[in-house]
Amino acid sequence: MATYTGAKCKVCQEPFKDGDDIVVCPDCGTPYHRECYKKAGKCINDELHESGGSWSKSAEEGGEGIRCRRCGFNNDKDKLFCESCGTPLHETESEAADRERKKGAYRDGVPNEGRVEYSPFGERTVYDKDSVIDGIKLEDYAGYVKNNPFTFLMSFIRFGKYGGKLSLNLGAFLFPEVYYLYRKMNLLGIISLLVCTVLSVPVMIANFAAGYAGFKIVFPFDVSSDSFVMLSTGCWYVLMSWRVFSGLLANYFYYKKAKNDIGLIRKTADGEKEVKEKLSAKGGVSWMAAICGYCMYVSLVVGSVFFINQMYK
Predict the structure, then answer these.
(1) In Å, what is the CA distance from 141 to each residue of 231, 260, 265?
(2) Are residues 132 and 158 in the same domain?
(3) What's the number of domains the chain is made of?
(4) pTM listed for this prediction
(5) Nearest Cα to 145, choosing from 155, 154, 153, 137?
(6) Contact criterion met (CB below 8 Å) for 109 and 139
(7) Quick check: is 122 in a domain?
(8) pLDDT, tens only, 146-186
(9) Tens digits of per-residue pLDDT, 187-220?
(10) What is the 3-state secondary structure (H, E, C) of the chain?
(11) I need a labelling partner for 46 at 20 to 30 A (CA). Which of 3, 101, 131, 250 fits?
(12) CB-CB contact of 284 with 258 (8 Å)
C-alpha cells in the first residue's frame, strides 16, 4: 500500500491513503480506487498503453523512474531492486553481465538462460547448453547429474575438452564407503564399501582397545603387539590412500558413467520427452542406497570387531 500512498487516482484525482481499497491495471500497473475503476469500466491511462510503459509513483509525480534492464518495469527512483523481478537497479552493464555469468549455465539442472565460462590457463571459453563435450551435449549432462550440476559440469568440460582425470570431490573423500552408491555407481560403490570395511576393522579394534569409542573392550590377544600395531597402522594408511584416491578420481568415474549412460539412452529412447525421463531416472542421486550402504558398513565393521573378540576367547 505504501507504494501508492500519496499518488492520485486518475478517475477521481484524489490521493490514495493508507487503507484504501486499490486495484491496479494488469497491463500498465496504474492504480485506482476500486469503485473508481468499476465506474470507468477500464484503465484510462491511454498514454501508457500506447507507449507500452509501466506506471510508477515517481513518473506520476513528475520525476523519472528507473526502468529495469531485465523486465522493463518502471520503478520508483528510490528503489534499489526491481519490484517486479528483483534485479538490482543501480549496477553497471559490466556488473550485470558479471553477475549473470557467475550464476553459471545451470541451476538445479535446468538451463539458466545463459552459459558457463571456463578459463583453463587463462584461456576464456564460454559454453552453453548446446555445447558438445566428448559427443554429449552439456544439457544432457546437466539433466543426468541433476543435483549440484555446476560443479560437475566444470569438471566434465575439463575432462572432455582438455584431458586429465583429477578433480576434487570432498564428499567422495570423506565418505568413500557410500558416495559411489549415492551417485548410483553401484559396482564401484560395492567395491568401495568392502574395501573400507576390511580396512576399518583392524583400525576399529585398536580404537576399541584404547577406549577411543567411549568404552573399552579387552581383546583376548595382544593388541599392543608390534605385529598388530603394524597391521592397524598399515590399514589406516591404506584407508586414507583410498579416501584420497576417491576424492581425486570420483568425478572422472562419474563423468565416464554419465557419458556411457547418456549415449545409451540417446540410442534407445523415443523422442526428447523420453530422453529427459530416462536421464532423470538413471542419473541423479539415491539417498536410500547411501543410507543402506552406511548402515551396512557400520554393521559389518562393528559386527566383525565383536565377532573377532568372541572367536578368540
Answers:
(1) 43, 11, 12
(2) yes
(3) 2
(4) 0.63
(5) 153
(6) no
(7) yes
(8) 887 778 988 998 898 888 899 999 999 999 999 999 999 99
(9) 999 999 999 999 999 999 998 888 876 777 777 7
(10) CCCCCCCECCCCCCECCCCCCEEECCCCCCEEEHHHHHHHCCCCCHHHHHHCCCCCHHHHCCCCCEECCCCCCEECCCCCECCCCCCECCCCHHHHHHHHHHCCCEECCEECCCCEEECHHHCCEEECCCCEECCEEHHHHHHHHCCCHHHHHHHHHHHHHHCCCCCCCHHHHHCHHHHHHHCCCHHHHHHHHHHHHHHHHHHHHHHHHHCCCCCCCCCCCCCCCHHHHHHHHHHHHHHHHHHHHHHHHHHHHHHHHHHHHHHHHHHHCCCHHHHHHHHHHHCCCCHHHHHHHHHHHHHHHHHHHHHHHHHCC
(11) 3
(12) no
Task: Verify that 189 and 265 share a domain, yes or no.
Answer: yes
Q: What single-letter amino acid sits at 306?
A: F
Q: Are residues 296 and 182 in the same domain?
A: yes
97 and 129, same domain (yes or no): yes
Residue 32 lies in a domain: no
**Which residues constitute the domain of residue 132?**
93-162
Asked whether residue 154 falls in the same domain as residue 174, the answer is: no
